[in-house]
Structures
1.
Amino acid sequence: MDWQTPEDSVPSRFVTEAEVGALLANPPSSGAWRDGDRPGDRLFAPLGRLDFEHGGSIPHARLAYETWGTLDDDGGGNAVLILHALTGDSHVLGGAGNGHATAGWWAGIVGPGLAVDTDRWFVVAPNMIGGCQGSTGPSSFAPDGVEWGSRFPYTSIRDQVEAQHRLLGHLGLDRWAAVIGGSMGGMHALEWAATHPELVDRLAVIAAPPVTTADQISLNFVQLEAVRTDPHFQGGDYYDAPDGEGPHRGLALARRMALLNYRSPGELNARFERSWQSSVSPLGRGGRFAVESYLDFHGNKFTRRFDAGSYVTLVEAMNSHDVGRDRGGVGAALRAYTGPSLVLGIDSDRLFPVSGQEEIALHLPGNLDGTRPSVLRSDFGHDGFLIENALVAPHLSRLLAV
């Protein structure tokens, strides 16, 4: 749920009213990448029929993905799978434009000479099933030529990992040299370890929980209601609405709610204090605090690169997360994976607190730090794993050196 573009990650204190106004002008009904748009660096893997564990199927599913580096000749001995967070995509590395709404989201971690060195590793990053950046999701066309919309099946973390498993076969690989995921991507990484332990040589779980708790589900519920109660959501079937009439208000509100969970109170207080952004007196009406402008700007900006139907689908998938479900509990599920593992938490994370990473680390026999996670000290909260490259990089380097 924590994905930020690099420009979001280095925040300014003030956002101008003109910037907010420009984003409010005729936003699209959906910010999804659509067939016919420029593919950019995306590649596409046909998955065939995908049956979902809670019912429903997609007859011709596909994953959009990107790769960097060169594959060795030994069936995946240097292939690294990187899994994105809730509103991320396959564009880990590279510039904005040419079909990509934003620049790469982990450019300080992945690349030549970096922690995930693309001179050594063949890096693969898919856009998850249910997403809106090239993989099959609610905004994709069904066989009848109409968007799936509300007909898109309820999607679980396990469904998404099954799609990623098929990508492994599509690429002709025997295994992954490492599976690395943060936040929702960390849920996928855990599921890989529990479902296919023999296919994962190394594992990195960053700022993710072993299960989605009632507290986390409640935060998600409020965001889902913000989208669903937008009158333009139309139950999920809004794709033929003209620009300006999609569920952008509900989606922007959900994004604003989410941002409050991604950053820490200390960071927001230190950055904005009680700064007022208006020519109107703070004691009068008509103006607003700087932090309100910041939330407004990023909520409205989000609607131009994301899809409300995908947001609902993916948040529900996060709610489904329980790596111990039908496996005898978290401990039994994680003990199935014995390879080298890294569990990384952030001390100021109020979305997925360190207590979750402590439970994961306790049950992974190959954890690099014994029965404890590594914990980053960061003021940025949950988003620290996307921002604090200098802190994250050494941990990934030592995992990949094993």
2.
Amino acid sequence: MPAAFSPAEFDEYVMHTYARFPLTLDRGEGCRVWDTDGREYLDFVAGIATCTLGHAHPVLIDAVTEQIQKLHHISNLYYNEAQGKLAQWLVQHSTGDRAFFCNSGAEANEGAIKLARKYAHTVRGIDNPIVITAKASFHGRTLATITATGQPKYQKNFSPLMPGFYYVPYNDIAAIELAISYLDYEKPQVAAIMMEALQGEGGVSPGDRAYFQRIREICDAKGILLIMDEVQVGMGRTGHLWGYEALGIEPDIFTSAKGLGGGIPIGAMLCKSSCDVFAPGDHASTFGGNPFACAVALAVCQTLEQNRLLQNVQARGEQLRQGLEAIAPKYPNLISQVRGWGLINGLVLNAENEVNSAAIVKAAMAEGLLLVPAGLKVVRFVPPLIVTEAEIDRALAVIDRVLAEL
């Protein structure tokens, strides 16, 4: 057996764009993973809300094996059945009419921004379109999507940023109404409003239903497009197939990635036919929508539906939230609140306490539970959607023990 590739060797050859935890994972099964020393961990990170069916799920193995033996990539010069069937499933299970496929959430959001800009130019006659986004949002790491992201820490040292974005506080309807009045004072400039139904990287902050319904009313009245970033909260993560369903609205455009492929890279941007203004050559992706990724994503979608996983997300999410809410009062100096939907939940730490989310994550890792920060003061719980009642209980016991030790 060859010697393990050490973190020191890894760091010699790989750019240091991630602050990695000192852990090398080797294999997984269901909601468990093992490191190169054979130690087992309960995985409540799931590739950051990506491994919908967990690890080594038989459906994934079968889909990967079958498709790789047939055809894995042909480019978009030709039709491919897997892409068409995946688009059909997504359209039939959402408010979208047509789909564009790419490789990641950032790419999907780039596509949404481009579509909104072209619509503004060609349909509404706007010369310099502006997209309104929320503070504390997260939309990706490309230049356009970090500009759309309302968090200065992601934008530092990458100026000049892309023009055409304006930020408002999340869940503050007065602020967004004031912003639109200001931006459209002399002539219409607001092309789109781009929001997450629940801010994941921004601290697991759920959207307010009345806020989003008012945004939908404003967009309808003014011809503004409503874009919902479903990259982290879509594909059943919230207990609904799409986060916008929890808010009682329909977007004009929405994006998906992460959980769509169950861990295989794929992104999608869907829109209503009324704003589908892209023509051949307007947008493209070499690998986007290839037969391999689409076949796996379709298998994930069908399993999500056939195995009634949304019901599991609702039940296990409620179990996890109630468990965390029962634990939190035991540690008032550490925990201020619990928030979330379905199987995306945040344990919010007291701002006054010196303990940060990374400290909790490291302590939990030492006890065999993998968690992920959502900012300095929120610990995120995003297990695979197949997580069991016993696994939720195990995670709760570990976090209780960790908080007691801290």
3.
Amino acid sequence: MSELNEIQTLAEFITRIETLKYEHEVSGNNSELLFRGQREDKKLLPKLARLNLNGNIKKIEKLMLDEFKRASLPLAEFEPKDNWDWLALAQHHGLPTRLLDWTYSALVALWFAVQNPPNDSANGIVWVLKTDISDFRDTEKFDDPLKNKVTKIFRSRVVSKRISAQAGVFTAHRIDSSGKVVQFESNATFRERLTKLIVPAENFSSIRASLKMMGVNHSTVFPDIDGLCQHLERRFSKLEDEI
């Protein structure tokens, strides 16, 4: 494990991100960085690819999305326009899809990594992706995500307040004819532009406290009543690694 990629404090994290952004710009690329925070080091696969499905992955994907579209409209804040909108909305509410969550906000990604105590003393991870303009999917020209044949970055319309609050963006993953999804960190197009930052388990609580002081908490990341209630619970109680 490289000490350079270990993050002990929020200040260290910000400095490391600024360095990565500087390196990106010096190389001649002004595209933005993307971030993904994880409580532990797991494969970069969308949820759909991590489940033991009752059938063909593409058929199950379509069935679930169709049922979501049929049943969710009275519950949605905004009316989706196309399948890209529907997929983004479904993803943000927990439906297994071919999308993987990322964010333009380094602090939001770090919060997702440390918001809860570590799992069995596992270190947290923040992935940083140096993007290129060619990485992004033009959803006007390519209107059906279920026929996506190349893994691309997908910028959703704001079909949920959570997408806006989390500065959310997605990778839309290719599913091949055999039903296989390539891990993002193994994808030849992206793997050389990924950086893995490690957040040691013993630093979760102190970094979480620093983020709270900076205004990054459940109520800002989840701008709804559920997020407010979780924020109030955390404000007036302690987690096991904070005692």
4.
Amino acid sequence: MKNILVLGSGCTKCKKTAEVIEKIAAELDVNVSVSKETSPQVIMKYGVMSTPAVVVNEQLVHSGSIPDTTKITSWLKEA
């Protein structure tokens, strides 16, 4: 199972990012745990300056926008 953390203030883009990741994971039949984190302390721990940001298995993979389908698919298909 992949643990995915969406970092952000809880804004519309942050919520949309989590929804898109969950949707694509379901389409690909990949088991994921998607959670959202709004704590500024946690967000800063990852060195994120712009949100939404995405952390996959404790590795920051994206920040500053809603990721596109191609990027999300590549994260989900990685071993």
